[in-house]
Design brief:
The chain is α+β, with helices and mostly antiparallel strands. It is built from twelve helices and ten strands.
Length: about 375
């Protein structure tokens, strides 16, 4: 068997032009598939940034909420009712809203404001500079140092700005686990200050963050909240809800699916046609091997080895090319959202195996039909 595989390898790489064309087709297809699905995965991850950063186990919200960025305020009594539910260890309010900040040079910049519970500061970011307790100071805000930090003119401790005709002071610089999706700088302050500084409707609680006593209490809490006419979701359930919204209720999911399918078809057509040409040009060699006693199963194994070797080599090159491109782009665009996940790689791997299988099938059918007599007669 080793000798058969060695012959198959030499037949494959001997014609560098055909081998290069095969690799190029599969590499390009894998690159496009990984790139498209990586952008999609990055967008979905960024869309749940606030859920990831806050880290609450259960989120209580209005049933009509589709994404964390579009909250629907709830009345204050809902917080009291949630706190009285059996199995709730504690529950705190969260303010989530948008505002327009006036910087010291007179320009305006849209910002996202998170108002944390005054007593616990649950969901607070990790401090880089300053003290988290300074958030209680007059006009205190904490700014997140991420890709959007420069849009606020790279503020330092003590930097002043205006927000809705109120003065704000940067008392801390922090970081969070995930950057946002829409390229808007983020500020953290206390819940009451956010409610006072920003224009609001009659209700001001965007979400209620709940910590259950035990994991078994999660279903009980969700059931009680449902009876109240509201929705309680775990962190993972809320992230899934957000992902489903962007996947099925916007054009994003359809666009990415079409691009991935087109990439697969391109790779399949290029590799299939090139591999078929390769088989035709080497048909007499396979016939000679069959005349020398090579069994049909051994010839099939040779072709499958050639197709699989080419597909896996192109698969590795495609992933490497995509990773290099993402790294290069991130050096130029800090908030570039694409991420390579195991799911992306797994999907591309399955598609590459399908390409290898179909390309090999085309070659197997042709080789099994040849007869040594026809080869030598020609």
């Amino acid at each position: 068997m080793y000798g058969i595989l060695r012959i198959a390898y030499k037949l494959l790489v001997n014609d560098r032009g055909k081998f290069g064309a095969l690799l190029l087709g599969i590499t390009f297809a894998v690159f496009l598939m990984i790139q498209m699905t990586s952008i999609f995965a990055g967008v979905l991850n960024r869309s749940s940034a606030n859920v990831i950063n806050i880290g609450a186990k259960i989120w209580v919200m209005d049933p009509a909420v589709q994404t964390v960025a579009n909250s629907i305020p709830m009345p204050d009594y809902v917080l009291d009712e949630v706190r009285s539910i059996p199995g709730v260890k504690y529950a705190v309010p969260l303010y989530s809203g948008a505002a327009l900040a006036k910087l010291k040079d007179g320009t305006f910049q849209a910002v996202s404001v998170m108002g944390l519970d005054d007593s616990s500061l649950f969901g607070r970011p990790t401090m880089l500079e300053g003290n988290i307790q300074d958030i209680y100071a007059e006009n205190g805000f904490i700014v997140i140092n991420d890709a959007e930090f420069s849009k606020l003119e790279n503020p330092k401790l003590g930097t002043r700005f205006e927000i809705n005709d109120h003065e704000g002071v940067i008392v801390g610089i922090a970081q969070v686990a995930s950057s946002g999706l829409f390229g808007v700088p983020r500020l953290y302050t206390t819940y009451n200050r956010a409610r006072q500084y920003l224009p609001n409707a009659r209700f001001t609680i965007s979400y209620i963050l709940v910590e259950p006593k035990t994991e078994k209490d999660v279903m009980t809490i969700e059931s009680y909240v449902k009876k109240m006419g509201y929705l309680a979701l775990t962190k993972d359930e809320f992230m899934s809800k957000i992902s489903e919204f962007y996947t099925y209720k916007t054009g994003l999911g359809t666009s990415m699916l079409m691009m991935t399918a087109i990439s697969f078809i391109v790779g399949l057509s290029i590799s299939g046609q090139t591999f078929y040409t390769f088989i035709i040009e080497n048909l007499e060699k396979f016939g000679a091997l069959k005349a020398m006693g090579a069994r049909g199963s051994e010839l099939v194994f040779m072709i499958l080895f050639q197709a699989t070797f080419t597909a896996l080599t192109g698969f590795g090159l495609g992933i490497g090319l995509c990773a290099a491109m993402i790294l290069l782009v991130r050096q130029q665009i800090a908030d570039y959202a694409a991420i390579v996940t195991f799911g992306n790689i797994g999907l591309a791997f399955v598609m590459v195996l399908i390409i290898a299988g179909l390309s090999g099938y085309v070659g197997v059918r042709k080789v099994l039909k040849i007869e040594p007599f026809d080869i030598f007669r020609g």
